[in-house]
Amino acid sequence: MDGRLPNHIAIIMDGNGRWAKQRNRPRSFGHLEGLKTAKRIISHVSGLGIPFVTLYVFSTENWKRPLQEVSYLMGLITSYLKKEYQFYDEHDIRVTFSGDTTELPEEVAAALKETEDYTSGHGGTTVNLAINYGGRDELVRAVNSLPLKDGRITADDIASALDHPEIPDPDLVIRTAGERRLSNFLIWEAAYAELYFSPVLWPDWTAAELDTALGDYAERTRRFGGIVS
Ligand code: IPE
Ligand code: IPE
Ligand code: MG
Fold first, then answer.
1. Which atom of ligand 2 is nearest to the CA of 130?
2. Does residue 15 have its Cβ closer than 6 Å to ligand 1?
3. What is the secondary structure of 111-174 as a DSSP string?
4. Catalytic one among 7, 62, 157, 204?
């Protein structure tokens, strides 16, 4: 890849259900394929030396789906995290999580914690998985965690109380499968992110798709409200 690479990419992995439907298969089949895609894209991001990638895995709104689908997804998350230790080692990947883990089934929360601990010494790409994550929920939790003090709460106070204050804001937010909305993803952190929308369903995403997004990003002029001469 030539040109300027983002420091942090955040991806709304969308379209698993539609991908399965196109094949007359259950939605779970699409989620399984989506998982393979996540590995493919993580490998590529890590190979490019991009320090941070956040993947939207399960939103605070996704509990509205049928219990069968929610249970399938929770099971997939738990077994995948445990199975992939070799993959994290090979790529020197550190895994972290955003979201309210206190509301997750116990075995899911335990798998998250174990994976975070296991990979904490790795120095390559940080893969931050957003699970039971909602941007509004994150903000509410952050504000409630701040100590009561005289005077006003500042933007820095809030930023420091978010799930991962040490991870820089995303430079590029990608959404797949044609939808053009944020669906409650990183609403604070993505305030100045470049947005990239792709019609390609997540299970069909390849390294080439990501390279196209990165090429597009490299052409953008980021002004942050200022003027670039
Ligand atoms: C994204 O794919 C994965 C999750 C939200 C867990 P969807 O399941 O939303 O797929 P579509 O949008 O129905 O095609
Ligand atoms: C957003 O996708 C959440 C994840 C990708 C985890 P959804 O498919 O849930 O979003 P909406 O319902 O189309 O906004
Ligand atoms: Mg969707």
1. 6
2. yes
3. HHHHHHHHHTT--S-EEEEEEEE-HHHHHHHHHHHSPP-SSPPPHHHHHHTSS-TTSPPPSEEE
4. 62
- In the reported structure, the alpha carbon of residue 123 is separated from the centroid of ligand 3 by a whole-number distance in angstroms of 32
Tell me: the pLDDT tens digits for 166-210? 999 999 999 999 999 999 999 999 999 999 999 999 999 999 999
- Please check whether residue 53 is in contact with residue 91, taking contact to mean a CB–CB distance below 8 angstroms: no
Looking at this protein, which amino acid is placed at residue 126?
T
Looking at residue 86, its amino acid is Q
Q: Where are the alpha helices (DSSP H) in the chain?
A: 16-22, 27-47, 67-83, 85-91, 106-119, 135-145, 155-160, 207-218
Contact 13 CB / ligand 1 (< 6 Å) = yes
Ligand 1 contact via 58 beta carbon (within 6 Å): yes
pTM, two decimals, is 0.97
